[in-house]
Amino acid sequence: MNTEMEIKKAANILANAKRTVASCGAGISAESGIATFRDPGGVWEKLNPAEVGTAGGLLNTLTNNPHKLMPFFIELLETFQNAEPNPAHLALGELERMGILQTVVTQNIDNLHIEAGNTDVIEVHGNGFRIRCISCGGSERLQRKQIIKDTLKKVREIKEFTLETIASLLPPCRNCLAPTRPDVVMFGEMVKDIPQAFDAARKCDVLLAIGTSGTVYPAAHLPFHAKESGAKIIVVNPNENAFSAVSDIYIPMKAGAAMDEIIKAIRRLMH
Ligand code: APR
Fold first, then answer.
1. Tens digit of pLDDT for each residue in 208-245?
2. Cβ atoms 181, 134 nearer than 8 A
3. How many C-alpha atoms does 32 have within 13 Å on its Cβ side?
4. pTM of the complete model
5. How far apart are CA 158 and CA 217, in angstroms?
6. Is 125 a known active-site residue?
7. Set 125, 221, 225, 271: catalytic member
8. Does residue 222 have its Cβ closer than 6 Å to ligand 1?
């Protein structure tokens, strides 16, 4: 079946859905300029997950070899500073306003779904613009562009990168003044809100899997869980991925163009 037909079928299914969930990965933010993890040139090609992907590894790298990491950290901050919600994020916000989409489950920490207007966003890997106290556990949501601007200004004033000077880049805890860390999930740490994510996948009748390779569990199980509960699975991904076998509709396109076409097709159906 050709892609145009798949888009029409997807629009039909979504327009008649009772409860739709979108399960998103790094690919939905690729067109916002944020590198994915496993594509050629991706994050894990540049950085060693053992050195930066676990809390212990990151602490060790920041303690013993901070200068190795800081150029990538500054590049990441600049990438996040310039990022905006792209047509795919905006389409999910539109689907919520149309009453079609209820929940976004995302593995991304870039805050772009919230900025695109979705109101029920389950961030299973946390949010890079929410900080958590390492002592009392209190968390605080920060304004993405402001905290990046402040952090980049501080970074450029640091003479010597040490664990202490790097830890001082984030504001202290509002409750107890202890140091804070980004409220993101590192490898080996507990993922967040998984019961809510699986509950949403079980209750939906359509699950849109957008821009995820399906490599990392438990998030990668969501499309299979939805399928087992009788949902239709629509996959949007320009490359082969773990969900081709479970998809009812597979749209081998970039998320921005695919979601734009789907929204246009739904609008034609609704008039
Ligand atoms: N539109 C849609 N999909 C895209 C696009 C695009 N423009 N560009 C790339 N993709 C697809 C790729 O084909 C790939 O299947 O996005 C997927 C990205 O896969 P990964 O890089 O593995 O990212 P993700 O699935 O989100 O990884 C899950 O791994 O390292 C951890 O915590 C990290 O949350 C991340 C998790």
1. 999 999 999 999 999 999 999 999 999 999 998 999 77
2. yes
3. 29
4. 0.97
5. 38
6. yes
7. 125
8. no
